[in-house]
Amino acid sequence: MIGYDWKADKFFYFLFFITASFNYFTLFGMMLVACTPSALLANILITFALPLWNLFAGFLIVRPAIPIWWRWYYWANPVSWTIYGAVASQFGENGGLLSVPGGSPVMVKEFLKDNLGIRHDFLGYVVLVHFAYIIAFFFVFGYSIKFFNFQKR
Does the UniProt entry include the keyword Transmembrane (predicted)? Predict the structure, then answer.
């Protein structure tokens, strides 16, 4: 419905990115609960983390438009990697023409590269970063459950 091609690799990329995002959101919540002395404090912390993730994800403000001193947060943001991966996997190699208002028609992949900073050949690293976030959140959660004990009196 939104212009995705009916190809197996694009379908599985999309399925991977959605599943990976569900996993790291769940593991991030579990990690916060395990790292804090109460679920209330974890809830307060996540209310600050999630709006920042959404703001710097590259959806509302694209990466080239983010000020240079805040771009590090774009690259540290797991949601930005998911959006990058979904867009790059679905449209990154599209050679069709896109009509830009006030300009001449340009290929979709060139528009993504020039205006949004999204390249299809960077997709392997995006998949690795998703695995890294999931593994990191999982191990921090496991370490916190094992070694942090907030039950001491």
Answer: yes
